[in-house]
Amino acid sequence: LRFDEKVRVVVVKSEVKGVFCAGADLKERAKMDDAEVAHFVKRLRNLMDEIAALPVPTIAAIDGYALGGGLELALACDLRVAASSAKMGLIETTRGLLPGAGGTQRLPRCVGIGLAKELIFTGRQIDGQQAFSMGLVNHTVPQNNEGDAAYQRALALAKEILPQAPFAVKMGKLAINRGMEVDIASGMAIEGMCYAQNIPTRDRQEGMAAFREKRPPHFTGK
């Protein structure tokens, strides 16, 4: 996906009705020794980092349970859409664990330190409406009979992104992600560097021309 220039947005969904991702298989985990567990979690953390680093926007469509590593997968995406009936939680402390695939870092950056600590310390599960009220998801929708309401809303959101200039969106994501990790002065410098890369693009010229000519722009990602 990273190297396919035709990809503009990635939507992450489940093929299992009622479940987005239920997290690790604890029966499988119980058969591992300590070294194997450490290796498994490191690989999982690397996978989440790879998803977070994709250059295009990513949207998690949460139509059911997103627990433990499943919620960490959703947190690795840029945007999240949930059915109101979905259940989410970093439940690791209820199993003698702590989140190990980015949850302790991405959740507080998403909802704030206080709420993140409460959710992680208690292992509480919340529904889609509660997740929306605390800013964990961008949108919540009533579930439909097919069980894919969040996916349908995620597709609609993706279609809002598709017409926009691909390189500008890519640079916007990079500027936000890098800028959130540093002080604002450094963040401004990062934004400036990303903007400088966007100036010579054909898409920027097309955007300006379309505005002057009062027509929709036709972006190519160049």
TrEMBL record:
Keywords: Lyase. It holds the Pfam family ECH_1. It comes from the Eukaryota. The keyword Lyase applies. The keyword DNA damage does not apply. One of its GO terms (molecular function) is enoyl-CoA hydratase activity. GO terms for biological process: fatty acid beta-oxidation. SUPFAM superfamilies: ClpP/crotonase. GO terms for cellular component: mitochondrion. Belongs to the enoyl-CoA hydratase/isomerase family. PANTHER family: ENOYL-COA HYDRATASE DOMAIN-CONTAINING PROTEIN 2, MITOCHONDRIAL, ENOYL-COA HYDRATASE-RELATED. This is ECHD2 protein. It comes from Ceyx cyanopectus. The lineage of its organism: Eukaryota, Metazoa, Chordata, Craniata, Vertebrata.
